[in-house]
Amino acid sequence: MALAATGYFRRLTHRLTEDIDQLDAEEMMAESAHASGAQRARDCACGEEVTMYGRLRAVAACPKASAASVEAEFFDGTDAVTLVWFGRRRIAGIESGKKILVRGRLGDRNGLKVIYNPYYELQGDS
C-alpha cells in the first residue's frame, strides 16, 4: 500500500509542478500511440503523405475576399504543423483545443511544416 501511495504522490507532484506545455506534449504523445496509423510530426519529412493525431492550439481566419483561408496550429506532442484550408472563412468544429486526426501531404512554408487542405476527423470531446 505504501508503494502505491508513493507512486500516486509522485505522479500528483509531477502534474502540479510540470510546465503545462510539457504535460500537453506528454498527453498527446501517449494518445497518438493509440491512434491508428498516426505518425509523429517530428519523424515526418516534407513531401510525405502523413496521418497525425493531435490538438489544435490556435485557429485563425483570414477573411480576405480574394484569398479566404482558415489556418490552425496543430500539435502532436513532438512538433507543430500549420494546417491551412483555402477558400473557407470558417470550418465548423475547427476550434482551439479540439483533438483531431489529420491526413495530407506535408509541405514547407518558410522553414515550418504545413499541410494544405488536409483531410481531418474530429476526435471526441476535448
Automatic annotation (TrEMBL):
Designated name of the protein: ATP-dependent DNA helicase RecG
